[in-house]
Amino acid sequence: MRFFRDFGYDDIPSVGHDMLGSDRQYVEYMRYIEVEGPELEKYRQPFVPQTLFPLRIRTFNYNGEQHPATRKVVLTCPVSCLSLPPAALHKLKLLSGARWSPYPPTDAGVTPEEQEKEGGEGWIKISCEMFPEPLQNSKWCSDKLDLLVMESQRNPTYFLSVPLDTRHIHARERKHPRHTHLRRADFPLEWIPEGLREEARSKREARPLGEGRLPFS
């Protein structure tokens, strides 16, 4: 039993039908433009390119090879680019905790010029690898940053008297193999020159005598 008859040269081949279908689709969209275009023009807005994009998203790639780290996403954002009042900026740093740092991560690709221009209020770093796809993890990081910004604007003046905890920054610096510099906070108040004691006392940059020890002791 034959299901297909021989070609009798009474029709165009399949390639011709594909070309006709493409032409019909083109004519259909041209008709949409002619009929509905004038109605859509009233929603037209001029395009203004964004001069500053504060978010930096870093992903991992192993040249196409499967690896668990390829789903991880790291989001870095300068706090000064969030356009928040000073009270909200302080609360945002408090809420961020160890995710906030006065300097950018070394692997974020931030140049010294960008640090001088954008890093006046520090940087926030959020990473995620809970989901199987990098886009899902980047969406999670972006949502968490939106929640931090939204929460920082709720009664921000209530937290102005709360000091900023920077112990995670000092601990990270002490663990660095090239840590050779010392801060005034590493010495007791009595060891600081008299001309600088009042400033150190107001900024809480010194500890009482006999409390703790030097980082190299």
TrEMBL record:
A Pfam family matched in the record: MRP-S28
GO biological process, any: mitochondrial translation
Molecular function GO labels: structural constituent of ribosome
One cellular component term from this protein's GO annotations in UniProt: mitochondrial small ribosomal subunit
Domain Small ribosomal subunit protein mS35 mitochondrial conserved: 52-191
InterPro entries: Ribosomal_mS35_mit (IPR019349), Ribosomal_mS35_mt (IPR039848)
Name the record gives this protein: Small ribosomal subunit protein mS35 mitochondrial conserved domain-containing protein
